[in-house]
Amino acid sequence: MSSINFFSYVGVTGIAVAVIVMASASVYAVSAPDAPPGDPVHGKTVYQACMGCHSIDEDDVGPRHRGVVGRTAGTVPGYAYSPALKGSHIVWDQANLDRWLTNPQALVPGAKMFFAMPNSKDRADVIAYLAEQR
User: How much of the chain is in helix, strand and coil states, percent to nearest 5?
Assistant: First the structure.
């Protein structure tokens, strides 16, 4: 079947629908999170490993975490961020938090944080827990 016959057979509407479906699928494939779904109950337990430097409501060695999901990095008033993190303009969504917890120095070289959480399920659970702390 030549391309002319194909277009006559499928029609312009069919081609337009196919293009929209393929474009939507490619956007989803690029933006779909790789992290497993999180369990906030288990995340609260795992979060205890973070509490050497952080808390939900008070700044410590690290900034407070209440409201961190959706917040722009380096914007908690009164906390002394590294210039690297303050200038990163990262928004803490699930994907960025996962990358951060995997290897903070790879995401933002020069940041103060060196703690990493190697287990992807633990990261997803902590992120789910933090998402509830609005």
Answer: 55, 0, 45
Q: How far apart are alpha carbons 2 and 113 in whole angstroms?
A: 60
Packing angle, helices 94-102 and 120-132, rounded to 10:
130
Is the distance from CB of 126 to CB of 47 less than 8 angstroms? Answer: yes
Q: What residue spans define the domains of the chain?
A: 1-32, 40-132
Is-contact 69 127, C-beta < 8 A? yes
The first and second tokens of residue 8, run together, are 């006559």
pTM tops 0.85: no
pLDDT digits (tens, 9 = 90+) for 57-75: 999 999 999 999 999 999 9
Neighbours of 22 (CB within 10 A): 10
DSSP 3-state of 72: strand
40-132 CATH, one of 3.20.20.30, 3.40.50.620, 3.30.750.80, 1.10.760.10: 1.10.760.10
